[in-house]
Amino acid sequence: MMTTLIQNCSLLDSSSPKGYIEHQDILICDHRIAAVQSTGAIANSDRVIDGQGLLALPGLINSHTHSPENILRATVEQLHLELWLVKQFAHRANFPLRLIYLITLAGTAEMIRSGTTAVLDHFWMAQSLTLEGLDAAMHAYAESGMRVGLAPLVEDQNLILEYAVRAEPRLALLEEDQENRAVSSDLLVLLQDFFERWHLKENGRLKCLPGPGGPQWCSRHLLQGCLELAQQFNTGFHLHLAETCLQSKVCLSIYGRPAILELEEMGILGPNTSIAHGVWISDGLLCGGGLQRGPLPQTRQRRGRRAGEGIQGDDGLRNPRGGARCLQRGRGRHRLRRVYGQRGAEDQRGPGGHG
Ligand SMILES: [Zn+2]
After folding, report:
1. From the CA of 74, how far away is ligand 1's center (Å)?
2. Domain 3-56 belongs to what architecture?
3. Does the domain at residues 60-324 carry the CATH identifier 3.90.226.10?
4. Predicted TM-score (pTM) above 0.90
């Protein structure tokens, strides 16, 4: 049994007056923490790492990302989301399986390097989702050692486009795309196959979740099917909701009420459901559903339970201001500043860090 001792480091501890405790030793046996004690209390170890001046903290959680965007960083300028989506998917990027594997693996390297050890990947494929593509991503995650929830992003309608065509019939030209739109029953079969192949593999480290794109992009049949799958496999449910004012208004027009109420009636809201963004939801509706906010750069993220300090979403890395370094945002960064001072916190960002 190989043992490693990290000697004389500080430990993040929100219960202590300073927010951290100094002069601690961490003993690691076969890749697992076996003991944490005051410096000097643990005598022998195969390997010793000097932890003086370093802060040990639990692994961070990236609660919403899209791994295919690891390779699309800064390829589209910052636009309003609806315009950005048109440009982003105009070329219908169809990555070979080997590239999907490498893109996913590269993302894990960047996350691990910055202290993120768990991720919820809202994984998409631009043309059509395939079991082989999902396998490629999951093989990369299996090798990475990270804890992973992979939620294949599924969609079978486009209410945004339908709404736009009502206002401007000439936009019907774009509707030819509808003929290639996925059928909900096919998507549900694909998800079932994927779940049976990967859910709880690697001693439970890998999980599968249904990941509908959002109520404006999914039929009621698809949402209901995803919910049934989540219940069947006793797993979570992840989706975008009300990221833009337009999305919110389209759903209001189609459903006759806010989309979150539609989801609530379907039984989708609950402790196992996490919602990315949720910007255009009133606080009254949030509190009524028992929902609370979690952090998400650029917009916001709301979750079915309270988000902890180490939870942060990056919503994909395609944005030039994005990055997988959850720690550099929000309270984690402020905590580092308290321990190391301003300069020390900046140093933790490493080369190429984004704010
Ligand atoms: Zn997203």
Report:
1. 16
2. Roll (2.30)
3. no
4. no
